[in-house]
């Protein structure tokens, strides 16, 4: 049984390597602000905690030179920093994550 599992896994891996290309959307893997925000939240939550990140809604995302800047927000009159993420529009790489103090 174990040998069968190994053979199936090896066959699947070989099939994946035979793929001639990968689909890439014309607008990149992160085409809009909604997608950028979803990625940022998914990265922030394990680092800073769900409660902290939820408290920074609404989030805003702006695109500049192919890089999304996603930021949380604080209510008026509050001191402190917010979560920040930079996300590549073309390939969804996340080169920078930080949180102000």
Q: What is the secondary structure topology, with strand pairs?
A:
Elements: H1 2-17, H2 33-48, H3 50-54, E1 60-64, E2 67-71, E3 83-88, E4 96-99
Antiparallel strand pairs: 1-2, 2-3, 3-4
What does this protein look like?
- This protein has one domain (28-99).
- 37% of the residues lie in helices and 20% in strands.
- With 101 residues, it is an alpha+beta fold.
- Strands 1-2-3-4 form a 4-stranded antiparallel beta sheet, covered by helices on one side.
- The chain has helices spanning 2-17, 33-48, 50-54, and strands spanning 60-64, 67-71, 83-88, 96-99.
- A hairpin with a 7-residue loop joins strand 3 and strand 4 (96-99).
- The protein is built from 3 helices and 4 strands.
- It is elongated.
- The longest helix is centred in the N-terminal third of the chain and has 16 residues, at 2-17.
Order of strands, widest sheet: 1-2-3-4
Largest sheet: number of strands, sense, barrel closure: 4 strands, antiparallel
- Average pLDDT: 86
Strand content: 15-25%
Number of strands: 4
Give the % helix: 25-40%
Q: What's the shape?
A: elongated
Return the string of H and E elements: HHHEEEE
Number of separate domains: 1
Number of helices: 3
What is the rounded Rg? Answer: 19 Å
Head-to-tail CA distance between termini: 55 Å
| Structural class by secondary-structure content | alpha+beta
Uncertain runs are none
